[in-house]
Amino acid sequence: MANRREFLTSAGLVSAAFVAGASRAFAQAGSAAVRPETFDYVVAGAGHNSLLCAAYLAKAGNSVLVLEGRGMIGGGAKTAEVLLPGFFEDLCSSSHHVFARNPAYRDNEIEIRDYGYELFDPEIVVHYPFADGSSMTVHRGDLDQTAATIERVSKKDAETFRQLATARQKVAGEDPNSADPSREALFFQRLDVLSAFDAARQLWESPQMQAAGISGGRWGGVPGSDPGTGSQAYSMLTHMNGRPMPVGGSGMVSTSLGRFIEAHDGIVLTNMPVVQLIIEDNRCTGVECADGSRFRARKGVVSTIHVKHLMAMAPSELWGQAFTDSVDIWQPEHAMFAFHFALKGTPEYPLAAGGSITGAEASIMERPESIFTLNQDQARGELTLDDYPLQIVHAAGYDQTRAPAGHSLLKIEGGMPYALKEGPEHWDAIKDQVADQVLDRYLRYTPNLSRDNVLAKVIMSPLDIERMNPAMWRGSVHHLDKRWGNFAPYRMPIAGLYQTGACTAPGGSVTGQPGRNAAIAILEDDGKTLADVTGKG
């Protein structure tokens, strides 16, 4: 078996070979002799939010430079041939179900469809297998078919699921700010403030249905043991709306935005980490890169660097005490791991009624109470691997551009502690053993596969996640715990400096909302509106 777990350097850079195999390579730093050094806007970082923000600014007629510190653009939205040639794997995110609702895409404000971005929407959205052979499956937009799979486990839970679907549809048509909410709206409001564990026990009879809701709900980053996660208990209803993914992989959103920027006379440079902000008369007027290159911005600098790192790039007194106090108490969410495998064959989950099923994603956790293990292990720096909730992605079954014929991709991801009691660096010593245990657990649910089907692997521990993208502070792919609404502003305390990305509202995940929101603020300061730029009034 090929093992490319060392595809990351100690600095977290993707190697040149993998950059060449990615879906799109952008200009390298070597073109310094012909590039300008002053732009209207300089953008530090090339995650999908900063790229989207830069796309709006370029569309408004501004000269834009985007500087990416790594060998590939994309941040958490990257796809590359890190396993074997012809296997295009998502290094972090996969589903773009929220980005699909962003006006940038939905209303074609940024025409990224013209630059290679295309979504597919799997009919089998999520499958939930259990060790006793039972299972449930979410079928996109099909209440009857989804409920029928639940009925094989519990007739009562199937009926409850139908009732909740009807109630939720009614609530969707109501004013959320109504002073006189309906009985159904009050029910969901009161349910949502509970933990997912408590809400699941109130809603569902079977432990399988309880575990399915909690495990599939945890994908947003917060474990269902915590108060305020009650909506996770009925996450299957949310998944029924579909979880679209890009053809060619998650990185196609970044690739397409990069192409859009270049088509609008912008420049995107990789391997150009920003290390310092240029401050003149208490205003940010540009940036300096690790190689000494300096780029100036006539109108503003836009950052998607994690604010914890950004604050070291300018004199501390310029940030202001109130902002500093706010950032000092930021907390990371649970760190993520991502174990990637190239497979011969396709995962198939056997059904109790006979036959088998596959899909784009699966969610695995046997016992609802296992959700409490995450917080316990986080506090102790320990690993209890027997029943962590696992998110499984095998999108190549739907998107045949992602793997050669007869082969597929498998990504197993979830939460594990970043700070082990031996120290975060201990991950380098144990990650292969941990990945083997997690893979063996997964293979119990797909008897058509064995270790012999695994052709190559890339193992990314929480520490590797941070190395790949320093903005994923302490392995937190969403950059921080966003529940408290303690975000950085789009207009930073230093004049001329703006912030976007997951440190700003509404936080992490592939939504494009921080990028669009930041663009609205920046354009407003430049005397324009988004409607002026997009022609969408």
Account of the protein in words:
Helix 2 packs parallel to helix 16 and helix 7 runs antiparallel to helix 8. The longest helix is centred in the first third of the chain and has 18 residues, at 155-172. The chain has 17 helices and 21 strands. A hairpin with a 4-residue loop joins strand 12 and strand 13 (294-303). Strands 1-20-14-19-18-17-7-8 form an eight-stranded mixed sheet, sandwiched between helices. The chain has helices at 16-21, 48-59, 103-106, 143-151, 155-172, 183-192, 196-203, 207-217, 235-239, 252-263, 307-310, 321-328, 372-380, 427-443, 462-468, 513-525, 530-534, and strands spanning 2-3, 38-44, 64-67, 79-80, 89-90, 119-120, 124-129, 135-139, 245-246, 267-269, 274-280, 283-289, 294-303, 336-344, 349-350, 356-357, 361-364, 390-393, 407-415, 454-460, 497-499. Helix content is 29%, strand content 18%. By secondary structure, the protein is of the alpha/beta class. The protein has a domain at 9-80 and 101-120 and 248-331 and 480-534: FAD/NAD(P)-binding domain (3-Layer(bba) Sandwich), CATH 3.50.50.60.
